[in-house]
Amino acid sequence: MSKPLLTLEKVSKTYMLGKREVPALSNLDLQVNKGEFVSIMGPSGSGKTTLLNMLGCLDKPTSGTLLLSDVDVTKMPEKDLYKIRLNKIGFVFQTFNLLPYLNARENVELPMEGKFTSKTGRKQRASELLGMVGLSGRERHRPQRLSAGEQQRVSIARALANDPAIILADEPTGNLDSKNKYEIVKLLANLNINQGTTIIMVTHDGQVAAQTERMLFLSDGKITREKQGRHVAKKKYTCPHCEGKIAPGDERCPSCKKKL
User: pLDDT tens digits, the chain, 260 residues: what are they?
Assistant: First the structure.
């Protein structure tokens, strides 16, 4: 059983609209284990964005506890939360959020400036990540010279820049056509299987959500139900190291002999 990476216990969030209290999350409990691929669905106003902001340490709950690797981040000062966001969390946005005056490689390098001291090291790491997402040879292209699908690939490479423990994706396929939508979902699924990256994705698209391992349904600030996605079957029978075939209960891959 994987160790919990994120644990939310009775988390509530209330915003003030003038003198009126507006609840966004209500006594929400959630556990995400290391290496999971989770999708969150729900109607507008259900609390999806608020929950993602909590998980990304961009906001704090009004009440309740949020543990990241067994550390209570709700009590941390902003300077420590900044370090967590920089080193442990990667963000992927619906609108890509790429800087138009930087090329693909430079956009990927940007979050490394607070971690990698060597410019050469940043450049090499960015090029490797762009190759991983299928953009070798496009490093010098600025966003306006890339398709929407390619821009989202750049943003995923940027999210991976500091080797985060978790990727939070907010409607990552929302601005893509059907072909690019499934290419991006496939890319995220492969990262989850092959790199072991924990991914939490908010989406309105039921077909996209079905490709994940666990589907959570949010309503009125609470998780009302949960459903298993198709991705879990792929994880159970594919080695995360060599993609060789494994069987339920195997402790080591029969192909590469590595521990599962």
Answer: 567 899 999 999 999 888 898 899 999 999 999 999 999 999 988 999 999 999 999 999 999 999 999 999 998 999 999 999 999 999 999 899 999 999 999 999 999 987 766 889 899 999 999 999 999 999 999 999 999 999 999 999 999 999 999 999 999 999 899 889 989 999 999 889 888 899 999 999 999 999 999 999 999 999 999 999 887 666 666 777 777 776 555 567 778 888 76
Residue 88 lies in a domain: yes
Size of the chain, expressed as the number of residues it contains: 260
Q: Is residue 178 part of a domain?
A: yes
Q: pTM for this one?
A: 0.86
- Domains in the chain: how many in total? 1
For the record, the structure tokens of 40 come out as 């969150």
Q: Please give the C-alpha separations between residue 37 and each of 4, 142, 231, 260, in angstroms, as whole numbers.
A: 13, 30, 8, 17
Asked, for residue 260, whether it belongs to a domain, the answer is: no
Which CATH number belongs to the domain containing residue 74 in this structure?
3.40.50.300
